[in-house]
Design a protein that fits this description.
Blueprint (H helix, E strand, L loop, with lengths): L4 E3 L2 E2 L20 E6 L10 E10 L2 E10 L6 E2 L1 H7 L6 H13 L11 H17 L3
Antiparallel strand pairs: 1-2, 3-4, 4-5, 5-6
Helix pairs in contact: 1-2, 2-3
């Protein structure tokens, strides 16, 4: 999916193409952390959403995937943040440094759901909480 969304309302699809199915292997629950911030619980577009899938050996990150939606014009995979975290311990300093890297990977949007600055704050707090929960 990180290569499917090109820009706002622009997808990696040719005219006339249709998505018939989406399939993927579910990760183990212990290594998957999800978050959605929205006004209503159901049937609402998220102000932000965040997914972290990681393999952690004790506290050191062996593998990690971070996906975020609602923070920019398209859903994003935070590849620089993933690279930064690989091989590192999930201590407070590394988590704060990872948040700084992540913040550099997107330009937040302002819309009817939230301002760009609100999105940055909620994103930082959420990423900190999800990464801290992996250790």
């Amino acid at each position: 999916l990180s290569e499917f969304f090109l820009d706002y309302k622009k997808l990696e699809m040719k005219k006339g193409e249709l998505i018939q199915a989406v399939s993927f292997q579910l990760p183990s629950k212990s290594s998957l952390k999800l978050f959605k911030n929205s006004i209503r619980k159901d049937l609402d577009i998220a102000t932000i959403n965040l997914a972290v899938h990681a393999k952690v050996n004790k506290t050191s990150v062996e593998e990690i995937f971070i996906g975020a939606g609602g923070i920019a014009a398209i859903p994003l995979r935070l590849k620089k943040t993933e690279s930064f975290l690989k091989g590192k311990d999930l201590n407070a300093k590394n988590i704060q440094d990872a948040i700084a890297v992540a913040q550099s990977e997107f330009k937040p949007i302002s819309d009817v759901r939230a301002t760009a600055s609100y999105r940055r704050v909620v994103f930082a707090n959420t990423l900190s909480r999800l990464l801290g929960g992996l250790a």
